Amino acid sequence: MLSQKENFVKEYCQYVITSFGEPFPLVLVEANDVFLNDMEGRKYLDFWAGIAVANAGHNNPKVQEAVKKQMEKLVHCSSQSYYTVPPLDLAKKIAAIAPFPPCKATFHTSGSEAIDVALKMVRRYTKKHEILTLHGCYHGRTYGALSIGTPVAAYSKSYIMSPYAPGAIHVPAPYCYRCSLGYEYPNCHIQCAKMIEDIINFGSSRDVAAYMAETILGVGGIVAPPKEYFQEVRKVLDKYGILLILDEVQTGLGRTGKMWGAETYKVKPDVMILAKALGNGWPISAVVASGQIGDSFEPSDHFSTWGANPVMCAAASATIDYIVDNRLWKNAEKMGTLLMRRLKEMENEYEIIGEVRGKGLMIGVEIVKNRNTKDPGAEECKKIRALCADYGLLVGIGGFWSNVIRLQPPLTIREEHVDKALETLRRAVKEVEKSKAT
Questions:
Q1: How far is CA 284 from the centre of its chain?
Q2: How far apart are CA 141 and CA 145, in angstroms?
Q3: Both 299 and 152 in a single domain?
Q4: What is the pLDDT confidence band of residue 208, given thresholds at 50, 70 and 90?
């Protein structure tokens, strides 16, 4: 006889299309701050935050209250067809904390859509069409986002859906652990950034509108570039009049220990893309650009029926208020430093941990079969994730080979949560390493 959970999963598969892949085998029904509960009454410490979404904690009372108040006034009128109050309030708040004032914002429903909007915007402004992006990057699943992305594990491009839109030019990722150029940092002198100039000259039609990158690759495996990387990139871009688009969908709003990944790497973008944590669970995204770039859009360049939805904008405004009022980036830096230090100790202890890396509360643990050869440990990683869940801890998986444990908890975690997560992760890693040895 099937259990309640098994019956639910069976019915789910019968009626719901899961084109994104088979969901992790949990049926979640309730959330509060840093915890999730399943339908069987089990409680989980969430160290993935709905893929770096719940920065202000699940079911945040301040955010939920703002949503309820707005729902009583106006839920929908197509806010890109009329003027409404919440989008202006939100745009002003973003402009006040953005890493490149003065700026303007346009609001949409997902990170993928925002990527498409940004691509249209920079092409309209520059009247150029080529886009530079990183090897192993992931910017979403819409057609435009896929076209500039690269195959990343389960997010690989499908040949059947091709051809994709032209104009994408990929450059080496600043992936020091697996440097495609064969260098070691810092003796590399950030060659992966400097060689972008040669790629522009010899690998493009000299019609490059922008360079787009996540400040830290998320789906690509929490790949944190060297501290000088984006400054070197900016030098090249400025020389050729190329715009810098920073995808802050995962790194923005406090996750890296600063408000923005741009601040972590001390670089000013021309365009910035926000989503995920912006609504703390409510679906909203934004493209933030300097005034001239944003104003270059012409009628019908883009339209979204639910763009700048009043309820979603209210949620985002409350989320920003909560993050700023509680200085959550400071807690991310503090808890991230503690987490990183103790994970580095585990790196020295367990052979299947190839590298621990990241900034703030965006940390990746790369799992390998063999530390010397660095062969990716995808199966080992999958087992570690499953064991963590069995023991009450939820983590993510990423990386080009699906061999990186992703730790991106709510920014509201405390030291007791770090202790519990590390205890559980250590137990899982130890079990998997021991099973390899037998």
A1: 14
A2: 6
A3: yes
A4: very high
Spatial distance between the Cα atoms of 357 and 110, rounded to a whole number of angstroms: 27
Looking at residue 436, its pLDDT comes to 81
Distance, CA of 43 to CA of 235 (rounded, Å):
49
pLDDT value at 409 more than 90: yes
Residue ranges making up the domain that contains 67: 61-325
Partners of residue 285 on adjacent β-strands = 108
Q: What is the pLDDT of residue 158?
A: 75
**3-class DSSP state for residue 51?**
helix
| 93 and 224 together in one domain | yes
According to DSSP H, which parts of 4-84 are helical?
A: 4-15, 49-52, 61-71
Please spell the DSSP secondary structure of 377-392, one letter per residue. Answer: -HHHHHHHHHHHHHTT
pLDDT in tens, 157-177: 777 778 889 999 999 999 999
Q: How many domains does the chain have?
A: 2
DSSP 302: -
The average pLDDT across 134-146 equals: 93
Residues 279 and 416 in one domain: no
DSSP 222: -
Examine the domain organization and report whether 24 and 72 are in the same domain: no
Last residue of a domain, one of 308, 325, 342: 325
Together in a domain, 254 and 352: no
Structural domain ending residue among the three candidates 282, 307, 325: 325
Q: Which residues contact 110 (CB under 8 A, 6 or more apart)?
A: 140, 275, 283, 285
The predicted pLDDT at position 280 comes to 98
Show the tokens assigned to 35. Answer: 């915890």
Report whether 242 contacts 276 (CB < 8 A): no
Rg (CA), the chain: 21
**What whole-number distance in Å separates Cα of residue 99 and Cα of residue 265?**
11
Same domain, 82 and 209: yes
Q: What is the pLDDT of residues 334-346, one digit of tens each?
A: 999 999 999 999 9
Check whether 94 has a pLDDT greater than 90: yes
Distance CA 50, CA 275 (A): 13
Core vs surface per residue 212-242: b (16+ CB within 10 A) or e: bbbbbbbbbbbbbbbebbbebbbebbeeeeb
Domain shared by 110 and 13, yes or no? no
Assess whether pLDDT exceeds 90 at residue 349: yes
pTM comes to 0.96
Q: What are phi and psi of 247, to 5 degrees?
A: -85, 100
pLDDT for the residue numbered 162:
80
Residue carrying structure tokens 């301040």? 62
Helix axes 85-97, 310-325, angle to 10 degrees: 30
> Do 355 and 251 reside in the same domain of the chain?
no
The pLDDT assigned to 300 comes to: 86
